[in-house]
């Protein structure tokens, strides 16, 4: 065209450079439109005969990109509110996972770190897939971690919604958001079919497979994937058309054997993210929880019509340090806020004398279930269904869902499908009730329906309810689903079995389940749920023996670990706080010297996490020996301001403290 004098030299140079970029192709055509029909015909002939790639961009790729944008807009453009999501626009930039993130339950991670990750760097969402400096390259594998309920899926929706509107990462031609829930429905897939089956409007996937169009593949929710990823035994596959096991497909994509040119973004809970070798991850980020202002805004949105109630709920949360730390997580804040709001709304001054505002985990979830059960009753016409029938229906639903929750928890399964529901005898029609809608979420994607509990802790509480009720009549070990085991009679034997299995579990996934199980033996929870799910005062037969057993788990030696601390949490849930109160009082009076027995050391380790006495300063002056100091090391890591003076320490203790200060998890800022 330049040779025919239909373009100036400057126009020809610009058109040649721009025509290699799909989004600029239309601009090239626009320049030529003013040059007459002869120019357009000449351009078409030239493209068809000499530049098949450009011809494909104009005739195939551009319409395909447009259809993809329209599809994502329909799915993700439902008006995400920007206010509560501001914290998601800045992620914490982290250097790999800490030991606690790799080994501990989500709740323990929050409790130990006080909800404050030890990170100073952050990265804006719009720069998540850009180089950090002029001399670096964009990350190929990015992993974003966050505990259950912190907003990982919401972050993905926010990113896709913002990208579709053209506000960020305009250099990315295709963003392909997938969930591991979707992938659970396939046994085998090829890279090509992975794209075409989920995005049927992408009729020519070669531009993605070959890297011709810059692509971001999002894999959301690794913790919900049914198969563990095994990177050490990956069967190498470089053929994008070859169908292989889905877990093998994922490992080949992450290793770069498939979709080599695509950027990959994986979201996950921290423990599941540890499956991916650190050497394969180019960038790791973490979602932060609520700050004080964000928590207030969140609760104001929850109680939009009653700001007074919102303020009272916030006051109760701030009055309980442990609860305030937990409420930095949106999912937990929603459950706690609902429970406390329900308590404040439904208790008269007289009834409050008999019940206290919920403080323990078990009390919060008991109120939440009571609220769900109440609303389930209210929607039944009284003349057609008596309250007793409503109670029985609710018990049946909770029993069925509880069994699903318990055996799902044992298998580390958090997403369920219609086949799972049928195998556990759950009537799908009952899932439409308001009770189920508060406990179980439903997601319909293409040819399948997925069900998952509204929060991990809801599954754990339901599992504990099922185990508690079943243990009273079971004659075999409930942890063996088939029922084939040595006879195990009596509630206490089943209770001991659950605690022992929790203590032995390497990945700590039963810790909160056992806390809830202990909480169901507390007088307050029995009072809340008696007549609904529990029998009045039935806990009295087992409570004292359960407490003795838990104390026996503590009084062994001076080895203090997260297991020890969780046992102390169990005693708190069962409302046996005497040991902790004695040690806390001694801390206040600076009279700990000589009283740190193994059991009191366990209480001290627990108090380092939860006590207001340790909030400003942790004072352990004049009370530690080498052995006690060594046993408490794993807990001292997270004390911001630590006083250890007048302990007559020798060089061996100083070496221990030196090793602590160099650990990645260490949050000590001031040491005396």
From TrEMBL:
Residues passing through the membrane, by range: none
InterPro entries: DEATH-like_dom_sf, LRR_dom_sf, NACHT-assoc, NACHT_NTPase, NLR, NLRP_HD2, NOD1/2_WH, P-loop_NTPase
Family matches, as Pfam families: NACHT (PF05729), NLRC4_HD2 (PF17776), WHD_NOD2 (PF17779)
GO cellular component labels: cytoplasm
Gene3D superfamilies found in the cross-reference section: P-loop containing nucleotide triphosphate hydrolases, Ribonuclease Inhibitor
Name of this chain's protein: NLRC3 protein
Species: Baryphthengus martii (Rufous motmot)
The organism's place on the tree of life at top rank: Eukaryota
Record carries keyword rRNA-binding: no
This protein's UniProt keywords: ATP-binding, Cytoplasm, Leucine-rich repeat, Nucleotide-binding, Repeat
One GO molecular-function entry: ATP binding
NACHT domain ranges (all copies): 140-272
Subcellular location: Cytoplasm
